[in-house]
Structures are given as structure tokens and as C-alpha cells.
Write a structure and sequence with these properties.
CATH architecture of the largest domain: 3-Layer(aba) Sandwich
Low-confidence stretches: 296-305
Radius of gyration: 22 Å
Largest sheet: 9 strands, mixed
Order of helices and strands: HHHHHEHEEHEHEHEHEHEHEHHEHHEE
CATH class of the largest domain: Alpha Beta
Number of strands: 12
Shape: globular
Strand order of the largest sheet: 1-2-6-5-4-3-7-8-9
Amino acid sequence: MDDRLYWLWLAGGLGFAARQLRPLLETYTDAAGVFAHRGELLVKRLVTPAQFRALKNSRPQDFERVLEQHLAAGYQVLALDDPDYPELLREIDDPPAVLYVEGNLSVFQHALPISMIGTRRPSAYGIEAARMIAGQLVAAGALLISGLADGLDSEAHKAAVAVGAPTVAVLGTAIDRTYPARNQTLREMILHDGAVISEYPIGTEGQKSFFVLRNRIIAGLCRGLLVVEARQRSGTMSTVQFALENGRDVFAVPGSIFSPVSAGTNRLLQQGAKAVMTADDILCEYGYEMCFEPAQLPGDAPKDEPALSEQAQAVYRLLTARPQGLEALCAASGLPSGVVMAALTELELAGLSRQLAGRQFERRG
């Protein structure tokens, strides 16, 4: 029997981000060992009554269809003991027992994985800072990890795909879902060289709590976590907490004392996070010697005229030097918001448009 079936059984019985996983493996070594001793788990207080019932009333063979479904759809199923499972993630207190992966598994062997996160509604300053530092990190060879969300998460991924570098997107939804849906085009670009991962199998109904649980994976995959902009109380700050609990380095971009979206990052700096003004401030912590100036923006050099989709061409014709909102572009183009956002992503990666704060867009070039 495929060993992954034991892990799927264990993951299904314990639930997501279960704190009981680590003690179970310390006692019984692996999922097959847990299955062999399943009758004693409650007596030894290694699981909750609900978990015990779920594990007792199911068998590894019950998950054959789940495994086949994911493999047939092109997803890779990594159990915690799989050699391809990300080593850094394996070390955290509550790693996923099973990880679903689409894309390039070799990215998990990268020497310098850096997670970059921030608010979904950044200021113009935050967007520019994210673009600059993310571009510099990619130019230095770092692997950028983020959550495929709107705002600063997307900026990390865009900086990588713009130069054909790998990046990892961690989903807070089932592996076959993209949230927000307008980032489907960006997801497809990520898959050219990078990977999209989730601990949630196909068909999992979404819950708000999943995004917080997802944040521990973003923190667990990296050596260092960079926060560009964040409010004091936000999902971003939960990722920081996971990073600190698991011994990851935390970096923050200083911001205005008058900006609420910099209140969280400025507080992190007060508490001992390292201030970042260029990628050098991160790279030097890991023995990399670069020389980036704040004005250096990878990708500003002239490029050949890119080939654009019809939708991107239509949206580009509407863009001007005056910023316009998404609703105005949808109304003028007659295209739905998801299509317009995909076109804007395409234009931005081609260096032809720029997103400003408040989801305003302007022409470049």
C-alpha cells in the first residue's frame, strides 16, 4: 500500500494544523506507526475524543480515491516524511501532515527562501518599496514566498515572474482554488518556474481561519520574513508571530509615523526587527555581499515590445498618465473585473502599467 495513504488518513483524522501531530510522531515515528497503535491514542491522551473517533472510524484505504484524484489532476501529494517535503517547513511545531503541490518541487531546495508579506491595501510608498526590495532580492538569487493575496503579497510574486525567477505561492484555500479569483493569471505565471502549495485538498470548503493557518506555512518555509507594510492588528502580524515562534528572522520596512499601514512595521522595529531599506539589509544576514542603491529597480531597462493578449491591449488603450480605478476601466472596456485585473497583471509584468494605492492604475511607457 502507498505510504501516503497512512498520512492522508492521519491528516484527515487530526484536522488542519493539529498540535497533536508532533507528539504522535515522537511516540510512533510515522503515520503507519500511529495507525498500528490507534486503539491506545485516547488512553494515552495523545488525541482528543473527536480526533480519536475520526481515526478509529476510518482506514488508510478509504483515502485511495483522494490520492488518485489529486494525482490525476496534476497535483503532487507530499507526506511529511517525503524527501521532497520542504525541510524548513518540516521543522515547525505544527507542519502539515500532507502538502499538495502544483509546479516545480525543486524550489524547496533553494538556499535563500525569503517570505515577503504585507497589507492587502498598501500605500503608494508600500507598493514602491515592495517592488524595489523584491526585485533586488530576486536579482540576488533569493526565492520569494508569499500568499498570492491582493496587495503586497502579489508584488512579491510579480517581481519574480517578471524576470523568469521561481516563486512560491501558499494558498489559504483548497489546492484547486485561487483566491482572489482575479489572481488566476498570476498563478499561471508562477507555475512556469515556481510552485503553488496548500494543505487543503480538492473540495475543501473555505473558512476564514484557513488563511491564518496558512500564515504558519509562509513563515515556516523561509529563513527570513520581510514585512513591508502592516497595521498593528492584522493577519500579517499573525505570520510574524508564527515566524518568531519558530526561530525565523524578522525584517521590516520603516514607514511614516502618520500612516496606519506602517504602524505594525514600525512597532516591529521597536521590538527588535531589523530595518530594511534595500535588499542588502537582508542579504548580509546570510553572507551575501551585494550593493543595491535605493534607486535601483530591476526591470527598468528598455525591453522588446511584449506580445499582449487582446484583453490586455484593450485595457492598455484605456490607460493614461492619470490614475483610474478598476470600476472605471471595467465600465470603459465592457469587460468583467476578473478579466480586467488579469489584463492589468499582464500589463504590469510587461512594464506597461503601474498599480498605485487604492487599486488605481496608470500607464507606463
